[in-house]
């Protein structure tokens, strides 16, 4: 139905249409939807270049749970230190929504929101389970995902572990991304050598390898500049 919610399959077709260079009107005709529905969908989920069907579906589900009474537990604001808990909680919800809409899985976004808005910048697994009303397994999986990307660290606190985030988080995450760029550059270079630079496939892989090599070098330089900026911070 034109007025109903977009399905995951429709979002997949929108993504395919955008990748093929189709305009909103063409995609709308193919789906039997109003053009305005397509334009709003794309605008709120990354734009023409950043639209991803799976991420759009996840973000829509998150927004629906927020609107539905009892559909998703709110994140109770922690250690507000005299600040209005409701205002802090509302910001946390907006923060989570933004992260989800820009590609972060929901549970990972909720944990990051807890850490970023806590003055201590740290929490335990038990505290996250109680605060987010989720299972220990969900917390463990999400923290592992965040840790792998350099977004969360671990510290010993007696017999417990604390998950921490500090001012160096984006430097650490950036370095983790540099490692990913290096892996892309290395494997695509291997592919280019295997298939031959003179072949279309080999040339494509070779160009990809050079792109990630240059990107990785630029990222290392940017990270070093930021590290020096932090070390000189009074």
From TrEMBL:
Residues 103-160 form the HTH marR-type domain. InterPro entries: HTH_MarR-typ, IS30-like_HTH, Transposase-Integrase, WH-like_DNA-bd_sf, WH_DNA-bd_sf. One of its GO terms (cellular component) is cytosol. Pfam families: HTH_38, MarR_2. Signal peptide: none annotated. Residues 5-45 form the Transposase IS30-like HTH domain. It comes from the Bacteria. This is MarR family transcriptional regulator. It comes from Saccharopolyspora elongata.
